[in-house]
Every structure is written in structure tokens, then in C-alpha cells.
Amino acid sequence: MRAFSFSVFLVFFLMVACTSESTAQQFPYNKQLLKSIPVAFAKGAAQYRVMMRELPSDKFPKNYNPAFKKFETSNSGWWCSGFYPGSLLYLYEQTKDKSLLIETQRILKVLEKEQYNTSTHDLGFMMYCSFGNLQRMFPSDDTKSILLKSAASLSTRFNPAVGCIKSWNSKDSSDFIVIIDNMMNLELLFYATKVSGDSSFYKIATTHANTTMKHHFRDDNSSYHVVNYDKNTGAVRERKTAQGYADGSAWARGQAWGLYGYTMTYRETKDPVYLQMAEKIADYVLDHKNLPEDGIPYWDYNAPDIPHAFRDASAGAIIAAGLLELCKYTGKEQANKYFLAADKILRSLSTANYTAAPGTNGGFIIEHSVGHLPAKSEINVGITYADYYYIEALKRYKELAKGKK
Ligand code: GLY
Fold it and tell me: Whose C-alpha lies nearest to ligand 1, atom 2?
């Protein structure tokens, strides 16, 4: 009998060990980086206290351009409005500095009305990076209701004939434009199904992910930035770029959104096709001959002036955050490769090459991102989402080292 119970226990133990995420996996953590993470959070909090003082009360930080010493802000409808409260919440979580939480509560009141906004596909960025983190840290029915309304607003942009959520309008009203960035907005929909039990959000999210997987990727696993579909038939009309160097080039942040987006979609579905997609993107960005030694990509992998092209630190931060999740799900050899790449990116971003000196950069933590080079906009600047994903990546690194899920 005793032998029987022991073998039952053993089988149960092995089942749990095999089905749990490999968070217990040992990675070669960099001791110096681990030691510097609390300091980076404290310095980041100090930067955000600087930014708080600069910010007009109804505005959101957008970027800081060192060439013109200009701090640019936006209203709540800009796609980046969720990153400021999201970064404040992450920094509050790590430092317990109350002033950051008070500022979060103030700015979320300004953002709240965007839950009704059906004119943008970016509600995932805007509402989940902000209210999603608030709900994770301080769950309440009010926040849940804001998130569910936001998910409902986002869902109005889904077209079943195309199988996607619409990104942008076009002069031709029969066009249906979708950008790779849109993968990031699906996290809000997965959350909405989990808390409401309404599977329609989940179905929209997975349909969008499947359609994007089919039409956005090239044979080498890089992605186009923009796909234009016929809104009535779903046929692909054109594949092109908006923010990249050329239609056929690999815009760095687009690759980063895809990597992070498919990793998150795998987390939410456990469907291995999304894991494979994320791995293919990761291998594309990490094995690329034009990836610089410090791991921070040029703004486009095919920029014509490499090695003199601008870097995009934001793409580096998003890739690091994505890889630090992907390495938990993938096989041992790949996991090590992804972990080490993220480790390198974080060590690079944490040096004076990319981290702004205290009190500079409009309060942004990270320098040297590129928003939209073809439009000559936001070139070599501090930008909200570089900070958000850098802080998130540091948090993920710290939690991975602690074996925390
Ligand atoms: N369109 C979002 C981005 O610039 O990455």
C-alpha cells in the first residue's frame, strides 16, 4: 500500500513538474545587472518625478527631443496615453513611492473617458498598460468595468469578412488596413473573456492573430508593417510600410510588436502555433546580420545607412520584455538563447549609452528611440513606450531570477 501511494505521489509530482512553466529553469543571471535593478527603479522613479513637474494637468508625456530640448505632450486619445500611468504603476510597485501612485490616480481620471473610444485600434495599449496594471495591483469592480467597456469598444472594429480588427482608415472606404502593431491590443480582449466569460473577445483575438499570421509574414519570418485587405472579401490588396524604410524592409519595432504579441497570445491560449510564430520572429531578429553587437537594433533592419543608422532603443526594450517571457515557454536551448539576448539588451540599455543622466531627457529614462522616421517625426528621442517596456523587462528579469510566475 505504501509503495502504491509513493508511486501515485511520484506520478503526480512528475505531472506537475512537466506541465508547469519552466520558471524554475536556471538561467545564467548577471549578478551585476541583478544588483543594479533596484537602483534603476529608484533612478527611474526620480526621472518620473521630474516629468510629473513638467506635465500640464490634462496632458500625457509623448517624447523628449534633445536636439530641440523639447518636451512634447499629447491628449488622452493619442495611442501612447496608457504608457505614462503604466510606467508610474510599475515604478510605484518597485519603489513604493506614494507620489507616483497619487500621480497615477490623477492621470487615470483624465484617461478614463477613452474606454468609449471606437475610433482607434490602440485601446489595448491605452487601457491595458494603464488600467490593466491597476487592476492587477488593486483589483476593483470599477476598473474591471472600464476594461470591459474598453474591450467592447475595441471589438467594434473587428470585421469577420477580413478576420481582423481595423487599424487605420483609408481614402478608399473599401480598404481595410491592419498593422502588425495591432497584435499588442489583443491582450485586453483575452482579459475581457477571462473576467466576463464572454468568449466573443477571445474569438476576435485568436481570429485576428491567425489572419495576421497568414498574411503579415514573409518567408524569412520578418513581417510587413501594413496589410491592406478588401473589407468585403478579405482579399489582400497590398503589403507595404508606413513607419519602416521600405515596403519590403523589416521595421525594427514592427518585428518587436510581433514577437511580444505572439508570445502573449501563446500565454493566453496555450496554442503551440503562436509559440512557434514567436520563436521564428525571435530567431529572425536575433540572428540578423545587421543586429549590432550591443543588441539594440537599428530603427529598420534594412536601413540603407547601417552602420550609421539611428538605433531604436524602444524596439530593444520591447524585444527584451518579450524574450523574457518567451524563454519561460520554449525548449532549453532556445530559452537560453532568448534569455541571454534579453540580458544583453538590458545591460546595454542600462548604461549611459541609453539611460539618460538624472534630471535630463524630459524625465524619460531611456534615450535614442525612433518613432516615425519616414515622417521625420520623433527621431533619436526619449519616448514613453521605451521606458514602459524597459521597466517591464527589468521587472520580468528580477521575477525570473526569483522563480516567480
Ligand atoms: N504605431 C505604433 C508604433 O509606432 O510603434
Answer: 181
